[in-house]
Design brief:
31% helix; 2 domains; Adenylosuccinate Synthetase, subunit A, domain 2; single chain; 430 residues; alpha/beta; Adenylosuccinate Synthetase, Chain A, domain 1; globular
Length: 430
């Protein structure tokens, strides 16, 4: 039995979907434990490319796939995603299990999210506008609706009527608009259709997961976003509204911490982020454009271009500490094929002129201190044997491992499942 957590070590988009898909070959179940459809996992499966926002990546192998209690669920988007997967030949209903304790993203959450960003103007956070933050707010304020509430139609209708009135007042008084009033009966009818499709999937997921553990099954816990979008430990306030760290896998799925056997950190060979917020190694020159172009750095959820920069060792070292990472998977190395020189941030110069080699409280206005290394200047995309890798790439990987304090266990040289080198295939499950 093994319980392995997959977590992003930067600002998301590290390639978690591909790694989860790869490791699912020997997993009995995959659990999503936080976030909502503000995440996007891109997986190449044969000749097809899948972009998953809600459903765990394990569904592509028709592995038991679980949306835990820590996830917030937009039913309209979930049903659409399920329908798209079924059209592509994936038997979703048989393998998908949805927590009855998961919170619902309601229509007002999405509207409030968008209106709030508009209201902030230049001070906006850069959210996806999917209603994730307002949903978590209502969850904490005990004003949310959970998936299981849909199973009692009369209770749901009454709750819906009460909340719709409250949200309409907020819409009118705070946002000064009545153009998007919420009508409880219309929402009820819409959600009644969703529940017809999803009811067979709704279960007590903590019971299910703990039963799988008791039976000695291998389980992957799939995080969304990245470490530095964590609401507590990320670059606040430019963060998501949930805890993205490995520690939340237990809370967001309903298991005890002693069940966890390992934490795999996914590390992009350079650094990217979407939206606003500090980014010390960001490149606004031709090198940044090359990374963006060669890496196809456009958000899977929003389509927005990702900001690109050199690898930040301080950032990833902090992620290793916060998550208890036992090894790392380095992705998108092939994107660096054409660079003569590569840079790794090994320290920061603070606004007061002081240099530090530890992670500061704020990344605002820090200047990276770089260590330079020679590039490999040859095509490595698709290489699948360790001894095929150029010596300069191996030196780069060794340096990353040394600086972040974690061994490299997986090397990715392209987007396809087979374009991967697993250094010790038995380490995760045996």
């Amino acid at each position: 039995m093994a319980c392995l957590i997959i977590v992003g070590t930067q600002w998301g988009d590290e390639g978690k979907g591909k790694v989860v898909d790869l490791l699912t070959e020997r997993a009995d179940a995959v659990v999503r434990y936080q976030g909502g459809n503000n995440a996007g996992h891109t997986v190449m499966f044969g000749s097809k490319t899948f972009i998953l926002h809600m459903v765990p990546s394990g569904i592509l192998r028709e592995t038991t796939s679980i949306l835990g209690n820590g996830v917030v669920i937009d039913l309209s988007e979930l049903v659409k995603e399920i329908n798209d997967l079924e059209k592509m030949g994936i038997d979703v209903e048989k393998h998908l299990h949805i927590s009855d304790r998961a919170q619902l993203v309601m229509p007002w959450h999405k509207i409030f999210d968008q209106l709030r960003e508009q209201k902030k103007g230049k001070s906006k956070i850069g959210t996806t506008g999917r209603g994730i933050g307002p949903t978590y707010e209502d969850k904490a304020g005990r004003a949310g609706i959970r998936v299981g509430d849909l199973l009692d139609q009369e209770k749901f209708r009454s709750r819906l009527s009460e909340l719709a009135k409250e949200k309409n007042i907020f819409l009118e008084k705070y946002f000064d608009t009545d153009e998007t009033f919420f009508y409880a009966e219309d929402i009820f009818s819409e959600y009644a259709d969703y529940i017809k499709k999803l009811e067979p999937c709704i279960v007590d997921t903590p019971f299910l997961i703990n039963q799988l553990i008791q039976d000695g099954k291998n389980i992957l816990f799939e995080g969304a976003q990245g470490t530095f979008l964590d609401v507590d430990h990320g670059t606040y306030p430019f963060v998501t509204s949930s805890n993205t760290l490995s520690g939340n896998a237990c809370v967001g799925s309903g298991i005890g911490p002693t069940c966890i056997t390992g934490v795999l950190g996914i590390v992009k060979a350079y650094t990217t982020r979407v939206g606003n917020g500090p980014f010390p190694t960001e490149l606004l020159d031709d090198d940044g454009k090359i990374l963006q172009s060669e890496g196809n750095e456009f958000g899977a959820t929003t389509g927005r271009p990702r900001r690109c920069g050199w690898f930040d060792a301080l950032l990833v070292r902090q992620a290793v500490r916060l998550n208890g990472i036992t090894s790392i998977a380095v992705t998108k190395l092939d994107v660096l094929d054409n660079f003569d020189t590569l840079k790794i941030a090994t320290g920061y110069r603070l606004p007061n002129g002081e240099e530090c080699d530890n992670f500061p409280r704020s990344l605002e206005n820090v200047i990276p201190v770089y260590h330079e290394m020679p590039g490999w200047k040859c095509r490595t995309a698709g290489l699948v044997k360790y001894d095929q890798l150029p010596t300069e790439m191996l030196a780069y990987l060794d340096k990353i491992s040394e600086l972040v304090g974690a061994k490299v266990s997986i090397i990715s040289t392209g987007p396809k499942r087979e374009e991967t080198i697993v250094l010790n295939p038995t380490q995760f499950w045996d």
